[in-house]
Q: What sequence folds into this?
């Protein structure tokens, strides 16, 4: 464990911009931003880690979690990265034959050289006082670049509205047949921007969306810009926590309208049914790793307001068994039920049949693991993926399909989720 030096920061908003801008000189950088979320489970305020001492790039055929466990055990401090949705193929007897334009690694983690962690107006740096002061001076000298990301983007949806509505009806027939009772169905939108400054786009959307699990990752020519409101899983000294989201409405014009919309969402029987199905799935996933009797629902149907949407979030917790490695508990819960459906394995099989693109990084998880095996991962939704070599920009959206789903409303919800990101561009 490296020593840390801590310093007060007077102009936090500008310092954060300068810090992430300074980080762009490195091949690898990550930013995690909670936007000062008032959640009692928050562990990070704002963190930037840069410059890979070593990294882990894995393709689908590799033994993913075994390699991650070894990589984490050899690390001196926190490691950062993501687990793609398609790692499911290593966990269960599944496969993915859908097309993948991005072809990101199925798992990527790195151990950073420099870590800057901001909390309560203080910036902690994993360096000696003298070296940390020098780094902070270099960061403060940065002139903040102007935002130059305005352009008209010609987005293509890979599943037309007509195809989407037809698929929803076919999924509902599978529900009637008893194959599944809920399925998360997603579609990809993509474009080829002439110019795309990933940092400027992230800063613009991040400042407006203010999602509690926002993240920016660059490694080489690949970028992940996530504005996720959802926590997948946290492990803290033996305690497991998950906060699945199911239930979304757009915000109104004022506080009174928002209060009314919150009540409408809370009382929506379809949304409550979706939410409780996923809560049960998370409880079952946790039971594979937990001490019997410790799995509990801390909050059911919590209604939370974000910058442009209102969502229904529940909280599930458990105590991990002593004979279960923390990363084994992560594996036992992956991928998150909120992005699959239930029963999980059959839902994932049907997802491959109805979706036309590989999800890849989308609906995977991004976060950190510390030297003690504690970790925190988001759900990679509301996420832009960009390959600077191919000039390819991707956004997936989707939602849970149930017996009571109205196909037109499901399409509209996916449009709302897309606009929650695209409107900022």
A:
């Amino acid at each position: 464990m490296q020593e840390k030096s801590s310093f007060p920061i007077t102009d936090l908003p500008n310092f954060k911009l300068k810090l992430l801008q300074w980080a762009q000189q490195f091949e690898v950088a990550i930013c995690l931003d909670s936007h000062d979320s008032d959640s009692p489970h928050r562990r990070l305020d704002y963190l930037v880690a840069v410059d890979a001492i070593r990294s882990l790039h894995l393709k689908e055929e590799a033994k993913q979690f075994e390699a991650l466990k070894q990589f984490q055990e050899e690390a001196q401090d926190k490691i950062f990265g993501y687990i793609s949705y398609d790692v499911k193929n290593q966990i269960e007897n599944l496969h993915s034959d859908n097309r993948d334009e991005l072809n990101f690694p199925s798992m990527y983690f790195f151990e950073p050289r420099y870590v800057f962690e901001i909390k309560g107006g203080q910036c902690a740096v994993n360096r000696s006082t003298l070296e940390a002061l020098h780094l902070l001076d270099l960061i403060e000298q940065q002139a903040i670049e102007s935002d130059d990301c305005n352009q008209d983007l010609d987005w293509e949806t890979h599943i037309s509205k007509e195809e989407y509505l037809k698929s929803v009806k076919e999924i509902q027939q599978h529900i009637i047949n008893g194959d599944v009772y809920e399925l998360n169905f997603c579609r990809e939108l993509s474009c080829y921007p002439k110019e795309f400054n990933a940092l400027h786009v992230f800063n613009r959307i991040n400042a407006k969306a203010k999602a509690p699990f926002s993240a920016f990752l660059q490694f080489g020519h690949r970028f992940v810009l996530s504005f996720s409101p959802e926590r997948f899983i946290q492990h803290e000294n033996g305690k497991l926590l998950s906060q699945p989201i199911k239930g979304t409405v757009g915000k109104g014009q004022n506080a009174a309208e928002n209060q009314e919309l919150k009540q409408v969402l809370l009382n929506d029987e379809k949304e409550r049914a979706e939410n409780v199905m996923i809560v049960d799935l998370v409880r079952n996933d946790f039971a594979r790793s937990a001490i019997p009797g410790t799995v509990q629902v801390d909050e059911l149907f919590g209604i939370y307001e974000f910058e442009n949407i209102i969502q229904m979030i529940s909280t599930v917790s458990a105590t991990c068994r002593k004979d279960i490695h923390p990363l084994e508990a992560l594996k036992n819960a992956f991928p998150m039920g909120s992005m699959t459906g239930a029963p999980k394995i059959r839902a994932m099989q049907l997802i491959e049949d109805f979706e036309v693109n590989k999800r890849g990084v989308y609906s995977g998880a991004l976060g950190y693991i510390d030297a003690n095996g504690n970790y925190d991962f988001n759900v990679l939704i509301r996420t832009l993926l960009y390959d600077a070599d191919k000039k390819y920009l991707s956004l997936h959206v989707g939602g849970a399909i149930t017996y009571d789903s109205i196909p037109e409303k499901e399409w509209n919800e996916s449009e709302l989720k897309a606009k929650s990101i695209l409107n900022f561009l």
In short: DSSP finds eleven helices and 20 strands in the chain.
